[in-house]
Fold:
Amino acid sequence: DAGLASLTTLDPGAAAQSGAGSSVALAASPSGDMLLSVGAPALDTVDPESTPHGPGTIYFYGRPAGQDADTWSLHSIDQENPGNTAEWGGLGYALDVVWYQDQFNIMAGQPRHQIPGKEVAGGVAHLRGTLDSSSMEFVSTVNISEEGSRFGTSLEFEGDTLVVGAPGTSTNAPYGAIHVVRYFLDGIEQT
Structure:
């Protein structure tokens, strides 16, 4: 019989007021370690009054292979940590996680990300690490240079293909756009 076998509630605490759980992604390593990523795209730990427009953060829950289904440990990424970028604009709005070269690789949408001279252009951050890591390592940011595109509102990553939603893209107004990016976890080739 199919059905719910057990239920575990993971509570990131104060982040619940900042959209925690707006996006989630789960991945397993070949050995059975599991990483659950939970986006809190409106969280601002520096200036709580700015919510719901904070830079956002991602909470990482890890479960080593062989542990009970309700045994998860919480790790989080500080909003100022990845790439030391000042404006993360909604980090964790959309998420996907894959296992590659002995690490979890997280693709995190940040549709309010600012790039010089372009407000709300958006972006997708690539982070990576293991359950043993105290934090995830920032690798790079993929973005397009169109102001207001909100690149990173949705995303999916498979193989070397990153598909990213940008509902504010004006070149196809009023419909927005889907961007297909060839993204190699060792480097980027945008198309």
Remarks:
- The CA atoms of residues 49 and 131 lie 32 Å apart.
- Confidence is low (pLDDT under 50) at residues 80-86.
- The radius of gyration is 16 Å.
